[in-house]
């Protein structure tokens, strides 16, 4: 696992500054014994380790059996933590580690980072929705709160957008138009909210005389971290059962 050098725009896109979210992600890594790379930025040392524990003050990483590697980590004042959370790379920078014992293990202690980066790349995964397990999206067609959104079926979904299908009379979609507060119901997980723009739109006549519309929609505002995590969990669940 190699850390990535991020541009300012990438830092803004992928950064998480909420301490609550940071602790939740790090606890997941610890509880699932996910491997962690701890690297010296100057290239002088790197170890593979595990995250032993985390609280609202800091985190503990198991030390290596190689004392020379441990010495290099402890002497470095520029470290990078790299791991994965729900198959998505997570990294953050840290200053000098301290050596201490944690529940009987000799450990590196790092203060809780003020910012971590969860590097979910847009369109990095796409799942085709199975007809037996439909996925639906409620799209508001009127800005009045009293109006009911129209529910449509999804054909596929990714971190960057979705493809939907519906009967032509169900909803009047317009190519290039933006639809806010679209609610996508993920079975047994929750609902994510997104703002989408219709990028492509075409109609297919059927033998029954109806016309089916298909639309490719892009998320034009980044999904929140919570929504991204829910979507990744949905994708993981679907992949396990395919």
Layout of SSEs?
Blueprint lengths: L7 H7 E2 L2 H13 L3 E6 L5 E9 L3 E5 L4 H9 L3 E7 L2 E7 L3 E5 L2 E7 L4 E3 L7 E3 L7 E4 L10 E9 L2 E7 L10 E9 L3 E16 L5 E9 L5 H16 L2
Antiparallel strand pairs: 1-9, 2-3, 2-5, 3-4, 4-8, 5-6, 6-9, 7-8, 10-12, 11-12, 11-14, 12-13, 13-16, 14-15, 15-16
Estimated radius of gyration:
22 Å
The CATH superfamily of the largest domain is identified as: predicted glycosyltransferase like domains
The biggest beta sheet is recorded as: 9 strands, antiparallel
What helical percentage do the residues reach? 10-25%
How many domains? The number is 2
Description:
It is built from 4 helices and 16 strands. With 242 residues, it is an alpha+beta fold. The two termini are 28 Å apart. The strands form 2 sheets. Strands 1-9-6-5-2-3-4-8-7 form a 9-stranded antiparallel beta sheet. The model has no long low-confidence stretch (mean pLDDT 86).
């Amino acid at each position: 696992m190699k850390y990535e050098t991020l541009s300012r725009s990438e830092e803004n896109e992928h950064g998480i500054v909420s301490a609550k979210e940071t602790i939740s992600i790090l606890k997941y890594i610890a509880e699932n014994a996910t491997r962690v790379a701890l690297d010296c930025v100057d290239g002088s040392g790197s170890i593979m380790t595990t995250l032993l524990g985390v609280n609202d003050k800091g985190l503990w990483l198991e030390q290596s059996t190689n004392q020379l590697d441990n010495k290099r980590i402890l002497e470095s004042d520029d470290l990078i933590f790299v791991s994965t959370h729900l198959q998505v790379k997570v990294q953050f920078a840290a200053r000098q580690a301290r050596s201490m014992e944690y529940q009987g293990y000799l450990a590196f202690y790092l203060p809780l980072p003020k910012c971590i980066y969860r590097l979910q790349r847009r369109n990095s995964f796409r799942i085709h929705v199975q007809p037996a397990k439909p996925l639906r999206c409620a799209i508001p067609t009127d800005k009045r709160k009293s109006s009911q959104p129209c529910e449509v079926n999804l054909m596929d979904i990714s971190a960057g957008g979705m493809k939907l299908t519906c009967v032509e009379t169900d909803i009047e979609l317009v190519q290039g138009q933006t639809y806010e507060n679209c609610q996508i119901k993920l079975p047994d997980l929750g609902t994510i909210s997104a703002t989408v723009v219709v990028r492509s739109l075409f109609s297919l006549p059927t033998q029954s005389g109806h016309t089916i519309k298909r639309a490719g929609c892009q998320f034009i505002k980044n999904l929140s971290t919570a929504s991204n995590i829910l979507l990744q969990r949905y994708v993981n669940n679907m992949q396990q059962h395919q």
